[in-house]
User: Fold these one by one.
Assistant:
Number 1:
Amino acid sequence: MNSLIFGRPPLVFDPPTDAVQVSPRVPGAAVLEDLVPESVDQAVVLAPAGAIERQYTLALVLRALKPGGRLDVMAPKTKGGARLAKELKGFGVDCEVVSKAHHKRCLATRPQTLSGIETGIAAGALRQDPESGIWTQPGLFAWDRVDPGTALLIRHLEGLKGRGADFGCGYGALGRVVLAQEAVTELTLIDLDRRAVEAARRNLDDPRARFLWADVRTLTDLADLDFVVANPPFHDGGAEDRALGQAFIDRAAKSLRTGGTLWMVANRHLPYETTLNAAFKTVRPVVEAEGYKIIEAKK
Ligand SMILES: C[S@@+](CC[C@H](N)C(=O)[O-])C[C@H]1O[C@@H](n2cnc3c(N)ncnc32)[C@H](O)[C@@H]1O
């Protein structure tokens, strides 16, 4: 491979035309973890915001680069950019730092010898929690806990049966509870993030479960479902994006049969009611607590 690109770096106006996308958040992308060490000439990276995930990504990218290969990595200053140069130094890489209004960008050449690469990879890898047995990975949503909004939805979910889907399944916290219901005959778990899908697959060893690495907004092959459950995302690329949750609601309505139900949780301030009322016949606020609201909507 000549060039790889991780994510959609904002400062690269002219990315290498042959660059292979390797971000786990781009469905269909190549798998960064599987790249042959020292096989890539050039890498352009929008570094993830989470410190462990960022260092894991940098370690994998550096491992894939040939000695002498070019690295161009950037991040918003407040989302890890300010620490990039130091983190690269920790891997034995000196870089030239370019500061833009909101971003830091580091340009470097991969030296012959790296340090701390395997430690960085191990710290961010998919792992099984020894106490709970749950498979998870730093960088996934609420990767080391059950999100309080998800927990609230779990406490109020009722009457699920038949064929359903979990939109934005994460590592499968919600899916595990759904599949505990015997009347559920099939559950399709969908996430934009390959690592979430992989963790969910390991956490839900159940013949009724099927898994899709896909963008819910562009799904077309789900129809006539009895139910959809979701804790919809409302951030895209680090910024709040209410349209994302609204798109999840629209797609749920399109995927359900008449009479089918959407169960969702949202932060109380998020304005989903207009979208819900337009797409569903009845919308029932089930509970508001701890800053969240649970909604049951029937098509
Ligand atoms: C708020 S988290 C909920 C995760 C899990 N269901 C839970 O309750 O813990 C939202 C999830 O949606 C995923 N996601 C974000 N945008 C998506 C999209 N366009 N299509 C599918 N999944 C998406 C994220 O990767 C994340 O796992």
Note: Helices lie at 51-64, 84-90, 117-124, 148-156, 173-179, 194-203, 242-255, 273-279.
Number 2:
Amino acid sequence: MKDIPQFAVIGRVNKGKSSIVSALAEDDAVVIDGSAGTTLVCQDFPVKVDGRTIIKLIDTPGFQQAPRALGWMKERETSAASRRDVVIDFYNTFKDTEEFIDECRLLTPILDGAGILYVVDGAKPFRRNFEAEMEILRWTGQPRMALINHIGNDDYTKTWRPALDQYFSVVRQFNAQKVRFSDRLELFQAFRELNEAWRPGVDEAIKYLNSEWKRRERESAHIIADMLADELTYHIEIGLARHEQIQDHRPGLESKFHDWLRKRERKSRQAIEQLYRHNSLESEETDLDKPVFQEDLFAESTWEMLGLTSKQLLTLGAITGAAIGGTLDAAVGGSSLLSGAIGGAIIGAGSVAYFSTRRFASIEHVSRFFKGGRVVRVGPHKNQNFPWVLLDRALLHYFTICDYAHSRREKIIINSHDDTGPAKGLEQGRRRELAGIFSRLRKNPDNINDTEKIRLEEILLEIICYRQYT
Ligand SMILES: Nc1nc2c(ncn2[C@@H]2O[C@H](COP(=O)(O)OP(=O)(O)OP(=O)(O)O)[C@@H](O)[C@H]2O)c(=O)[nH]1
Ligand SMILES: [Mg+2]
């Protein structure tokens, strides 16, 4: 353990120390709170990759009485060379007493060899009374870096900089609530500058982090591709006696179909959240719309927001040869499709295709007969926009989660009412290739083709890694 670089996160109470630990260690179990004095004892939080600790972070209680502590030390200091010993004296004198409890606790990991990450709140101006704690940290002689965090919108960085520069060899801006992978990596790179002896350990940690990130991206593409393939091919078979109509079972079937789609989507969401180590995330997202069968074709929905535009769908329909017009159901009929309030605004043959693409559910299909009845298949979901909406929802969720700082505790809202899903911005060739895969998967729901799924995974990986959309 001694070879693992260790950093104690130090600062005044309530300045975001625990938030920084939580974000860097990707640990959403770290206790963070708006009231001062939340962290009372030191606690280790390992940064782990594949079960192996690569860096150790130590959350500490905040300084409470730094000026008085420094006063005690100054009375005993004889020269710069004696300062670390004076801090050790201070620690030994008070560690088992009721005095300077927080100061002794936070000094424990530092005197044990940890590097110092000193956190200040850049949204409040620098004041002289911070000098005492910075001086104590300097006296310890440990390598140290300052992080300017902002708890609020004001920016007093200019007042902090000249002071911090005198006490810390590296000074960085750091937003504890907007920490992305690249920010973590940059910070770990800065750790290298603090102490020559830590370089090999930090370099190794950075190497592991990079490969872990790549692994997560690949795994995410796999999870999303699996989900898309399952959702696009899902179907139910139901046995109907000769006197029964599929309509008799409609409410039950609709719920079953919808529940399955929702659960499958939720399962992939959870897998992604776990992969990115969000274990207690509360999220809010508009539910996947209930598929409506047949005449409920014009049901209000979020579908027009996400996914592709009707024009893009039409283009793809022509390109992929998807029988859009052919999906018109006899029960509804072309004329009823074009009637109604919105019907009048639509012109030409394209309009039939447009409306038929809005249908959610597929139509019954007799798969076999048995004595006294028939087996009817419901699904797969035929709506042309369905795969694109699923894709958009999955990508919006993915991009939110992979960049979501573990220090944030509020419920996350994924906005699927927005019309800015990534699918519309995909390059046309890419869209066409995806449309082909979606269409082939749906045509063969009983036997998901592995080659299609692998290609889907590759495309998703490129979208995820390079955010290839406008
Ligand atoms: N807006 C914003 N709030 C933050 C940021 N960092 C911390 N906070 C909030 O500030 C409060 C204190 O954060 P903590 O991380 O618990 O601070 P601490 O320094 O560990 O506090 P103690 O353990 O009490 O000393 C919490 O309400 C955090 O949500 C930030 O970068 N931006
Ligand atoms: Mg804390």
Note: The first helix runs from residue 17 to 25.
Number 3:
Amino acid sequence: MKTALVTGAAGFIGSSIAEKLLKDGFRVIGIDSFTNFYSKKIKQKNLEFCKKNKNFSLIQKEIQKIDFIPLFKKTDYLFHMAAQPGVRTSWGNNFEKYSINNILVTQRLLEQAKISKSLKKIVIASSSSVYGNQNGKMNEDKTKTKPVSPYGVSKLAAEHLVKAYVENFNLPVIMLRYFTVYGPKQRPDMAIMKFVIKSILKRPITIYGDGTQKRDFTFIDDIVNATISSINVSKPGEIINIGGGEVISIRKVISILENISEYKPKILYKPFSNGDVLRTEADISKAKKLLGFKPKTSLRDGLYLEYEYVQRNKNLYKLSRKL
Ligand SMILES: NC(=O)c1ccc[n+]([C@@H]2O[C@H](COP(=O)([O-])OP(=O)(O)OC[C@H]3O[C@@H](n4cnc5c(N)ncnc54)[C@H](O)[C@@H]3O)[C@@H](O)[C@H]2O)c1
């Protein structure tokens, strides 16, 4: 039985990866400090499936306080999903959290991984936000990275750290640049989750900007499958985009949701947020070539699944009139 260590295991993506690894017959050690970025109750619910499985164990601690040397001895694969996410919240004094949880923590892991003899692969979550504002498809090797938010800068810094460790110690690391991930368990600060909650509450929806900004939305199951299959990529330091293949405007998302919820919300417009980009579009030809990646879930189907998830777990999202 292979052992996988998943950091950020109580988060949206980490818990989904841990769940699939358990279903695939891995032993999983989850690590999460339950940061207060969003409700602990939501994170506990994210782990509900994993906690029932005898092959799952959880270390509830900050990564920077953990001695990984003994842990890595029994680990085959490391999936590093822990981070401080969120573009809009990355300005000002908050940047300290981004520096620690996205840059320092990555360095601590790499430093201890470099002396491990048992780690076969390390998969690290990066983000489309490293590209900033670009026209056309974003390509891992041809498109210049120019992040426009402190969050994007912190993710790019982590990528550069990885490159330095790969160059010097030949660490077997793969970096995945995820494009706007959505689906059941999505973080409550993300636009789609906010829209879903407001639709169920029958409340107005707030849009930052005019709603024509577009995103390459990627369904969580497609992210999970791509992430797990990346353990078979052989070249250390490879960077791979993972995108859903549909570039859709925020207004269009709301109109699909109107159809699902049978509710037409009032739209409130607020100024475009600093750090947000106008559009993202992943070139996924490398993911196709190296991972056999083909996104399977359409935005309509994925939105429906997220809507259903929130309906089933209303209590978690404070679905009261006060929200
Ligand atoms: N969700 C997206 O659309 C998206 C897009 C691109 C990249 N990413 C990246 O994917 C990864 C997962 O994102 P997510 O949306 O699941 O976020 P999330 O906030 O739901 O999960 C991250 C988890 O990491 C934990 N964590 C943070 N710092 C920690 C520390 N120092 N020690 C231990 N645990 C810590 C948090 O408690 C949280 O549960 C992140 O690296 C993020 O930057 C996400």
Note: Residues 150-169 form the longest helix (20 residues).
Number 4:
Amino acid sequence: MADEKKTRILITSALPYVNGPVHIGHLAGAYLPADIYARYQRLRGRETLFICGSDEHGVPILLRAREEGVEPQAIVDRYHLMVREAFEGFGMSFDHYGRTSAPLHHETSRDFFRKLAKTGVFVRKTEAQLYDPEAGMFLADRFVRGTCPACGHDDAYGDQCESCGRSLSPRELKNPRSAITDAVPEVRDTTHWYLPLGRMQSSLEAWLSGHEDWKPNVLGQVRSWLREGLEDRAVTRDLPWGVPVPEDVAAEASVDARGKVLYVWFDAPIGYISATREWAELRGEPEAWERWWKDGDSELVHFIGKDNIVFHCIIFPAMLQAHGDYVLPANVPANEFLNLEGRKLSTSRGWAVWLHEYLEAFPADYLRYALCTNLPETKDTDFTWRDFQARVNNELADTLGNFVNRTHSFALRAFGGKVPPLGKGGPEDRTLLEACAKTPARVGEAIEGFRFREALETAMALAREGNRYINEREPWKTRKEAPEVCASTLHAALQCAATLSVVLDPFLPASCRRLRAQLGLEGLRDSGPGGGLGSPSREGCFTWDDAAHPLLEAGAPLGDAGILFSKIANEEVEVQVAKLVEGGGEGREEDSGYVPLESPCAFEDFAKIDLRAGRVVSAVKVPKSRKLLRCEVDLGFEHRQILAGVAEHLAPKDLEGKRVVVVANLAPRKMMGLVSEGMLLMAEDREGRLAPVTTDLEPGSVVR
Ligand SMILES: [Zn+2]
């Protein structure tokens, strides 16, 4: 929950790693929720700053640059620009979008490092590491290749063998060679600085104990890290790309600083601080950033994906605690992962919807809406183009769009383009106005609790109610026979549309701006960049809470008509599905098309399932059914009829005589007029081929 006692809220989104463009999975994880939250806070009138930027250091960028034969700066320049533009296209309302190759970031990170070094926070260790004498540099894991000691694969990486999957350290490789020059590496000593997290664990735990209200998926991961016990982590690396280790700190430790940089995970989160400094400098108030980072009256909220939890809930807070000058995060509402059409998103296999490509096909608000209804808030979720189409057509166009469009165009025709008076109003009109009055607080409460799906659902419930109201009140009938009743109806419906234009603004900013123009509604606080700065009660502006009261004056002029949402045709989504072609085996990523794991299942739940060995006595196709085979299965103690939906994959002879595994206590189900008493377990491979799960044991044996 947001701490209302604090006046200022500083919101950050994970810095995207710019060795490629961003896709919908990124958007659903750390960006869309943060943007909704930031826009809401600004509309509330709260002093708000929303910060993000590109994460531009680290080995993958260096490797990519070497592959392409360009400087690392050229790689990050290309993707920094591309990512920033995609975010702009989606209305991500960052007050500043920085980058970690900026000089101010280098300075901020070096100052941070220097402070921790001078106050004795770090420990130093000297260890033997592989060194390329031709390139004149130490070799990071990925820069060493050689023969895997486990499987003999002759092109394993220094950190992992891609053939057998084993984790390695570079010195375990047989016949190691430098991936840069092919030279045989030498073993040399190198000294690095470490953050002694073990020593910091108790103060971290004390701080975390004040945050039991964080999301369960976040706390679960944090607790498991703490249970295992934290270990020292190196904060420097021997690499030619990154923030150089401060020379004065190295000299004091009698270490040669050349070729040493801060480890990317150390400098990247400092990027939030340096981007805030950059924002302040651009405003001509270079000290203004300190209000957000050093003042106890500032509340810091990090939006991230689940792969970043350890960095934002343990390591960065440990750094901030050790430094001492900065506020610690008040909350880290991490999301789980979004899958695409039932499969894990994969950059290298082309299994992704790229934001810059999406924007060529559809308006940003359509995806903001569809993604928000399906955010992976507590568990992984799946995006499909069919669902996207259904959400846009049935909910945005048919519910919200239809309601505001027919209300607005009726008022233009029947009431001379002005808001008609409520007059005496009937009970139905009051009921709708009461629903409008309650909605802002309800939507706001869900947003404050990081329940964005529920928030959007609550706002859309008002649109549905408005639609139903118009259907029931039938203003096209009362227009002639009872003009005053018709006026009341349109008055209430227009007020409802006005409320919607506020409570949906954080979700659909561009559409709501157009809707307010149609309604002639001016003066809402800006939910976009800069809108959370300056006096919280800016004169002449109304805020989120004001939307609990009628926003339109009787007699006020309405704006021009326009269609807010258009339906999406089948062909349009088919084009998108067709784009999802896999790129072939060139991928460098570990993803291999396996179906993502389900969320964890309690042992007690698993134990409820009674699995038995059974023998398929006979199998025949069920007439008129494409999918079903009717099997007679011997379970030892009895024979059962079991219908298996496998006829498109298996012939009866593939099952007959097989000893299979049966879910024996599944409640009987009726299909095609036949009763099925159980289920045959099937395994499905990555190509979608099915095979029965078999056993050698006699029918009736228990499978556990
Ligand atoms: Zn291997």
Note: The chain has four domains: 8-99+264-344, 115-260, 383-548, 603-703.
